[in-house]
Each structure stands twice: as C-alpha cells, then as structure tokens.
C-alpha cells in the first residue's frame, strides 16, 4: 500500500493518487505513517506523497491533511521516534503549514494550547511547529469562528498567545516554550504578555534552570522590552539575594556548584551582548578609561565580575573560562575586545601560578599574534606578562613567535613583534650592571633558567633582555613604521629598565651617524636623501629622522638626571658625542636656508609627482627636526639668552616652511599637511614653556625670556601645541611623547597648563588683544579660551575622581587658606563667576567688536562647569537665575551663541524644576516673531526672552524648544507607565492610603506637565514656521503628545474599573486639547500642504532650466509630509479612547472635541497616476488640483480656531 502511494506520487498528475487516498481509511493511513516512522524507514517520501494527493483546495484533501498533522504531532511528541526521523517529519510539516486553511491552523493551534494547559507534553519536540502555525495563522485575512463571534488571523493569534500565557506551564518545558516564542512574530503588547509570564515563572524554577532561562529571556529581548526584561531579572536576583542572606548557609561555595556552568554562560552572554561596539570611523562606543555609566557598560561589567568571582571560587571551571576568553580575544580581534583583555588581566593578576595549568591555551593564542591588530597584541601581551615571569616555556614560545613575526611579509606582523619585544624589555628588569661589550652577544632563550620563587632573576633577565635588544637592532633596517615604534618605545624601556641605558644609547648613536653630516662646514647638517627610499616612480619615507632625534633628546634628558657622576665619567663618551652632534645640527640648521634642503616657495609639493612627494617628506622631516631642537635647546639652555635666540631662529625656520606648506594647501595643491601634523613637543615641555612665557616673573630670566616673548607667533605656536595635546588626550585618552600614557603625569601637566591659560585669558581679554596689531589666525586669548573649554571637558571625562584636586590647583589666589572646608561646588562657582564676567563684558561690546566664537566658547565652558555644581545648592539656583537673565536681556542675532545659551538654560532648569513654563514662554515669543498662519492677523509680541528674534526664532530656538519638549514628553510617558504599574500591584491595607496619595501626586504632575506643554504647542502650531526641520520636528512632537494623551486616557480607563470616575483636572486637560490643539493641528496640516505645493510650483517653473530641481523638491515634500498621516492617526486614536472613557466614567468628554473634514483622506488612484507621470510631462494640472483641495481644507479648519487668542486684527 505504501509502495502504491510512492509510485503514484511520482506521476505528473495527482488524480490517481487522490482517488487511491480517498479509498483508504484513516486507520490505514495512520498505520502506514506509524510503520515508516517507528521503523526509521524515512517517512518523508510517504508524507510528501500524501500531501501531494491531498490538495487544500478540496475539502477532503484539507481534512486528510489535518488528520495527518494531528497524528504526526502525536508521533513526534511520543518520544518513540529517532531524533533524525522526528526532525524530518517536523521539517515537512513546517514546509506545508502555510498552505493549510485558516480553520485547520486554528484547530492545530488550539490543540497545542490544550496540551500545554493540561500539562500533557512529553518531550516538547513538537513545539518547534507551533511558531510556524501561529505565523501562518497571522497571515490569514478571512474571518475565523471564535466563540460566538469572528476574528481575523492576526486577532486570533493574539487571543491564542493570551490564552497560552494565562495557562499553567509545566516547569520542565518553561525554557522550551520561552525559546519557541523567539520564532513567533509578536507585537509589542504580545511580547509584554510573554515577558511578564516568563518573569513570573523565574521564582518557580530550580536553580540549575535559571541561567538557561535568563539566556532565553535575553535573546527574546532582542524583539523589544529590553528594559522590562533587565529590570525583571535584576528584581528576581535581588529578591533571591535577600532570601539567601536570611538563610543560614553552611557551605556557600559548594551549594552553587550545580549552577556554575550557567553562571559562566550568563557572564559571557552579558559581556558579548553589552560590550563596546565599533561605530562609524572605526571608533568604539566607549573608552576603557571612562568609568562605567551607561546600562550597557554596567551590564558588561557585571558579566566580567561574575566570571572573575566564579574563577576565584570554582577551580573546576577555571580552564574553561580562560579558554573562552582567549578564544574571543583571537576570534573577535576586528571588534573591540578591551573588556575581555581587562578580564584576562584581572584573572592572571589574581593567580599567575594557578594559570600555569592553562599554559597550553595561552601558547596557542601566541600563534595568532601575527594575524591580530596591533592594539590587541599589545593588550594581550600586557595581560599575560605576569605569566612570562613564572613560566620559562611560555616565554620561549612567545620569543619564537615574535621572531617569526619580525620577518613576516605583513607590516602589521612586524610591528606586533616590535611591540611585543618592547613590552618584554620594560617588564623584565635587570638588577645588575651591564657593560656595552656584552650587547652584541646572542643568548638563546632556552639557555635561560628562571627561578620562580624569586621576583626577579638578575642573570636570567639580563641575558633575556640582551637577546631581545639584539633582535630589535635588526628592525632598524626595516620600514619607517617599524623604526617609528622602536623610537617611541626606547624611552619607556630606558626609564623602566635603567641598566639597558648604555646599550640603547649606543644603538641610537650608531643609527644617527648614518644620517649626520660630520663635516661642520657643510649645510644642511642632515642627509635627507638617505631618509627616503625610491622604488620605481614611487617615493617612501625610510627613516623617520625627527622621531630618531626626538628619542635621542628624551633619552639624553633622562640620562643627565638619573646617572650618577662616577658612572657618567665612565660612559660619557656616547653622551658627549650625542650632545656635540645635536649642538652642531642646531647651529647648522639655523644657518641653512630652505634652498639648502631644496625647499622654497617655487618647489613642487603636489602628490601627483615623485618630486612633489619627495619635497613633502623633506618638509615634514625638517619641521619635525626643528621642533625637536626647540625642545632640546630650551631644556639645556638654563634660561641662556643665546640659547633662546637659537630657539627663536629654529622656530622661524619651522614657521617659514609651515607657511609655505599651508599656502600650497590653500591653493588646492594636495600636500601631506592638509591635516595638522602632530607636534614633537612633549606635554611636560609644553607645560614648562607656557609657564615660562606667561607666568615667569623672575628677574634673572627676564632678559632671556624677552627674546621669546618678542615673537607673538612663537607664543601663539606654544598655545596651539598645548591645544593639540589636549585634543589628542580628549580623542584617544593619551598623548605623544614621554609619559604619554601615564595619567597621573598627564593630570599634573593639565593642571599647570590650565592655570597658565586661565591667567592669560583673564589678564589679556580678546578685545584688548584684537585692538592691537592685526595678525592672521586666532588670537592667543581665543586659543587659550578654546584650550580651557577642551580641558574642562576632558578632565570631567578622564579624571572624575580628581575634580576637587584640579579645581584646587586652579585657585592660585587662596593657596594658604584651609582647604578642607571648600567643596567642589564652591570652587567651581569661583571659576564660573570669572567666565560670567568675561561673557558680560563681551556682550557689552559694540556689535562690530562682538566675537561670536568667543561667546560660544564661554557658554560651553559655563555648561561644563555647571555640571560640577550640587543640584540642591543655592549656587546652582544663582546660575540659573543669571542664565535666565542673559536670555531675557540679550538680543544677539548669533544662532550658534543662542543655541549654546539655550542649551545651558535647559540643562540648568531640568535640575531644579520642569522647564515647561519656559517652553511656553519661548513658544509665545517664536509665534510673535514669525507671525501667524493667517497673514491677515498680527500677533502680539510678548517678548519674554530678548534672545528670540527674527533671525534666531527659527530654526535655532524652535528646534531647541521642540527637542526639550520631546524630553519632557518622554518623562511623562515614563510617569504614566509607572502609574499603570501601581495599578497591578497588591498592597497591604496600611500601605493603601500612601499608595493612593502617591498616585494622585503623580497623576497631578503628569497632567500639569501635559497641560502646559499643550499651551506651548498651541502657540507653535499657529506659527508660520519655515519649511524644513522645524515643521518636521513639530509634526513628530504633536504625534507624540497625542500618543501620550492616549496612554493617559487608557490609564484612566483602568482606574474607572475600580474607582468609577476621573478627576476634574483630567476633564480640563481634555477640554484644553479639544479647544487649543486639535483644530489648530488641522489648520497647520493645511498650511504645511500649501507651502509644499508652492515649493513644487516654483520647482516646476524652473524645470526647463534644471530638471534636478523638481526631483529634489518632490523628495523634500515627501519627507516633510510623511509625519502628517501619523499625526492624524494619533489624533483619531486619542478620540477613539476618549469615547470609551466617556462611557466608563459617565462624563461626556467628546463634547470638547470638534471633528474636521480634513481628517478624512484616502488614496486617489487617478491623481496618483497623474503625479507619477509629472516628471516627464507637465506639473500644472496637479498643482492646480492640490491648491484647490488645500483651499477647501483651509475653509473647513478656519471655523475651528479657538475663541480666545492673544492677537489682534490689523
């Protein structure tokens, strides 16, 4: 019989197959299926044949399919089938589910619901089919019988999900059911049903089932309701902790052994899901130096803490944790993995000896170093560094990998090798002395024996470091990028491992001699041609000479300060040689003209020719060398006048060449300095230089410093470099040069620089400086102010724990007074008042002298400093009052300054109270400035804020108002959600009165906020706003306020079920919306349509001249009118639920709502066809039609304007 079905199924037509199946009884058909399935005879072919002979278009075929489905579901659920057979049957049922009629789908879905409700599931395998059935059901548009009524497929699916979530779930199938819902398309409301159901079940499960269920919940939250899921999980664990603490637990460690695996999974899920992400431009979403603040950062940190604590307590799981962390470091190298590297570092620091058991996993990770990004290599090697001190085999493995990488084809691999070797040199300190003659010997790492019981083994480390240095010397013949890494790393090695000084200094001396012209009468003193490499027509930088000199001068400075006099006598040869060479280079660089470097104004600097590329490289080398020599000669000069004259001469050379490059770039000739080249000056030197130039009042220094102070360009250059260093810190968290990653040193330098910039700006204001000689570029005072603005932001970002110390360092007037009693708010207020005075003085200048950039910088600084004030302090209220006064009294027409001041106003206002009253006043000012929709009506100008004028009203102030209104609406939405949550909670009798009182307070707050916002929108919606962002934003905000009004109405619908009434203030709010908003909304919609029609008309007239104008105009119209249907829908939803609330509360709320004909819209096919053909023909007909429709709508809407308006007719 089964063979007959299979043979008939192979025929082209299914008529004979249908006739044969019609003759079979139900028992015979199911018997065949059972025989094939249970015996593992691949029932797939038989099922396909039955489905082919049972078309859904015929009633008999449809019924047969339904019976087959029911029987197959029973078979799969019975547990009698092999896994492969069950999967094959389930897969075929899934494929055919969408062809089933709606009634069959309903019967199958109800069957599943009944099975779950009755708790008769056996293994849950059949649940894989339920998502497909529900999805197919949702697509059915026909009405299906439900009780005494009818529902379409989507509504029926919703009822089934509701029933399913209301039923009791067997404990052993909770995880499967939760996983099942991930594949079901759910609306927001349905998803909330499911999430609430699963969260309620958390407390009923065994401990070992909680982690996998939390995992499924987190995956389910990708559909939405993330906040609800996280809050529910946190609440459950908080309650669990509370219960756990109340119990007396004998063995805390072993009692959690059975859930350890789940904890590890949870930890990695949190770190994977909420770790830093890569965004546009290759940057990450967060910096590792910044403390965790966002929910994502805190969730990631929680995952890391779970894994670290689990590692500490449970020995059996340690190897798996380390393995998974290393797998992620290697496999996710292209993504941000700093959080995993931090975890690995913490694990190793906790137990380096314990991790020797996992050494094989670490050495496996070393094999991938050549393929990993440089920052990942540096992070990984830094993390495993403690292991290298206790494991000789691991260190040997690393050296072999780094040696291979040093000669790899890929440049990144070679750079990784250099980074690895430098890191090893920094961390394996030598306690004994080293002679330079030993530097050339090569000792194999396998010969080194490590004493794991001592912190350092001097002999072993000495041999180890010598071997590494020998390998690194070979890198000095490789590409410029590799050499650059060496030069930038040698100083840190010298400082951390001082016994390597002689070897490193000799290496640098030998390297410099290759590019140094030994004859003192020859110019220039450096062989620039040896620094480049020509390959055919291409020119490359081979030797980063400026970086080499920079490394030498920093190493020399360290050597002079650290080496003892007797040691200096022994080894002064290389030191003297280097100092003599630098002195000779300085003198000859000053004597050299640009022509000596083959660089002058007539030189070619384009990137299109090899000569131009060569000249660009030469220019950058000369500029860098000049900067290095400036720092070197200033440092060794000891305030010598002659040395400072040399410094100024070097700067003039630097400046001449910089000007030439800027001039070439300005003329459109592409150069390599279109972007600002990073300065070679160290941050420590920049700090000392600024102090000397602006704050040094010593008589003995006056003569020498006057040389440098005579050059305004040099002082501007010094401030510019300081600004560049702060900007680099702000963007990357570190700076170039010595101690560039030492945040403590950076902070000290920042404090010093800030003191100087603050003194310079307050002592010589921009207005005074500009009244003197006019020079190109920004003034020094303006540069100082820009630096201060960046520093105040950067300090709060990277040094939040040192704010008090920072402010104390700036207060140079009260150094001797007791500091303990002065808090951050008081210190910040002192600085705020200085900048307030500066802004007031600036605004009191005449219009010609007003500097908009300076004003904006001052406002930005005030915004930064205001964040340091205690929100409850009187100082914050004083600053708010001052800001309000500034906005009310100043009528500047500078849009950027106005935006900054408004931002400051709102940021302060929200800390004290809701800004809705300010928004209302600003909206009235905007209405007064821009005029009414009806041009025949003149609007009274209330002039609450002088800052709102014709130039700033739109888009600047208008967008600020709408942005702030949106934030208020979000807060009100959250408030209403909280109120809804209170309704579902059961409270004790003594708490009931407090609950009612709290709810009434929250209700009052929400209604007052909405009422005041409504009056603000009443003004804006009647304002003749220009087409563009203001209109778009206002339409979106209007949709949002109606959505929130609807949510409030729904809340009172729930309230009415218990109390039976609504408060008077709610009735007043509804009345206000009906009289002061809804009619005006329809009038505004007509206004928007009219201005869009006008823009289309203008574009159509210019069509013959420029066809693109029509396309652009139409695109803009489509974009700006898109929110209109959403707004109309939101209004209709609001009115729909108002009708329900009127019935429930017995109050006729709809008496305040007036219906408008313009709300009735539909797609007209003829007009649409005409519109689509307009781009090729003519637009006149459509424009006339649109104008006619708009005028009719205008007539309808004019009759619905509110009776009272604050305006008068001409």
Automatic annotation (TrEMBL):
Indicate the segments forming the FANCI solenoid domain, all copies: 64-254, 259-422, 680-905, 918-1168
- A Pfam match: FANCI_HD2
What are the GO MF terms of this UniProt record?
Answer: DNA polymerase binding
Q: Kindly state a single biological-process term from the GO annotations of this entry.
A: DNA repair
Ranges for region Disordered: 1173-1210
Compositional bias of kind Basic and acidic residues: 1192-1203
Q: Which InterPro entries match?
A: FANCI (IPR026171), FANCI_HD2 (IPR029312), FANCI_S1 (IPR029308), FANCI_S1-cap (IPR029305), FANCI_S2 (IPR029315), FANCI_S3 (IPR029313), FANCI_S4 (IPR029314)
Annotated signal peptide:
none
Record domain FANCI solenoid 1 cap: where: 1-53
Q: Which residues form the FANCI helical domain?
A: 436-662
Q: Which superkingdom, per the lineage? A: Eukaryota
Looking up PANTHER family in the UniProt record yields: BC025462 PROTEIN, FANCONI ANEMIA GROUP I PROTEIN
The protein in question is named: FA complementation group I
Species: Sarcophilus harrisii (Tasmanian devil)
Coding gene?
Answer: FANCI
